[in-house]
Amino acid sequence: MRRHRNVKIVATLGPASSDYKMIRALFEAGADVFRLNMSHGTHDEQRARHAIIRQVEQDTGRPIGVLADLQGPKLRVGTFAGGAHDLEDGDSFRLDLDPTPGNGDRVQLPHPEIFAALEPGSTLLVNDGKIRLIVKTCGPDFANCTVVVGGTISNRKGVNVPDVVLPLAALSEKDRKDLEFACELGVDWLALSFVQRPEDVIEARALAKGRAAILSKIEKPAAVKAFDAILAVSDGIMVARGDLGVELPVHSVPPIQKQLVRSARAAAKPVIVATQMLESMIENPMPTRAEVSDVATAIYEGADAVMLSAESAAGKFPVEAVRTMDNVAMSVEKDPTYRSIIAASRVVRRETVADGIVSAAREIAEATNIKAIACFTQTGTTVGLVARERPQVPIIALTPLVQTARRIALTWGAHCVIVPEQQRFKGAVLSAVHAALTDGFAHEQDFIVVTAGVPFNVQGTTNILRVAPCDERLISKVDPG
């Protein structure tokens, strides 16, 4: 099965998408990677969904990526006598460690680490930013605040602290258990929530022990400030606009999104744009025009993937949501201005031999009638470098490792093919040509570019480029080596 677009689609699974029929329908509609949200559902439910994904993969013969999204620490207020209270602008309100049910004057905030980081003037946001508090005085177990934006505050509502770096690890005890479960299950990507500093990513990587790639969710102002350092230690990035839009002025999110996407592209690491992309399709079979434009904007920016959350996990029209994203992507990528925008935002790097090889492959492909760029890879790094070039021709990623093929499913433009391990370049060229012909990228009179590394099956050795005819008999005749 070949996709006729470059951007990838990530679909979240949940109550609306948990059986074989629905998950296969989502894949056939265009989902390339499935997200297991560890904030919801039991381990048994996630294990069952993962097993179905692997069955769909086997039945369709296409590698499918699986991303486990860790919940991260959840900061919430305690409970109220009566369940809720209304706060008016200008009211005084106290947060403390006292577990006594709250009232209109105070409530418990059972997170001493927050009080340790607060200082007068700090902002506290409650219930997704609907209520805004400013700290007037504070200590190790309390914060006396003024209500700047009032509203109804009720049991267990979430709290955001946008303007301080909290002394909290990105991994809670639940996250550590979920991480180990997901790695044992065999997921391909781990999405790390509540990232504030590169050390958060390093800790998760140590626990994963190479069993899954680490994708950092950028959802806090501290992560935006430390983005370059976080990107350096991450395998991929998710622009998680939900919390970003709560903790930062909402008008600042679009330029931040553009900056993060460009930086991740320049680093040759996949980047997902997520949150509320087709939100109205949770209830309606058609999206709004604004939502379609939002998805299109992410694609024009060159994001590797766009993501559906509740739309596919709990919505009434999960297949229609995936199909809508697929249609938007194909429409955008057919637009002549898409290529000019992508080319204008391309970052050309030629710091290594591999950089030079993939850059030359793109230039040759675009200057001649080349039908595809085929690259052999052990870890997916070479495919990422080719994808960074955003070539106008398809990328055929060939690897003997199914784990690598599944991770590559998140990379822009990459069509993954699992091939036997090669020992000689001639065999590699034959495999590339066979894949190009079999999957409909080329015909016998066409040519493809093949990149590989010698010695074979060694990471980081991309050093060969060849223009090959798509005729296996001709290759055997002129290249006996």
Write structural notes for this entry:
The protein is of the alpha/beta class and 481 residues long. It has three domains: 229 residues, Alpha-Beta Barrel (TIM Barrel), CATH 3.20.20; 77 residues, PK beta-barrel domain-like (M1 Pyruvate Kinase, Domain 3, Beta Barrel); 126 residues, Pyruvate kinase, C-terminal domain (Pyruvate Kinase, Chain: A, domain 1), CATH 3.40.1380. It is built from 18 helices and 21 strands. Strands 1-2-3-12-13-14-15-16 form an eight-stranded parallel barrel, surrounded by nine helices. It has a six-stranded mixed β-sheet with strand order 6-5-9-8-7-11, with helices on one face. Strands 19-18-17-20-21 form a five-stranded mixed β-sheet, with helices on both faces. Strand 7 and strand 8 form a beta hairpin. Helix 10 crosses helix 12. The model has no long low-confidence stretch (mean pLDDT 94).
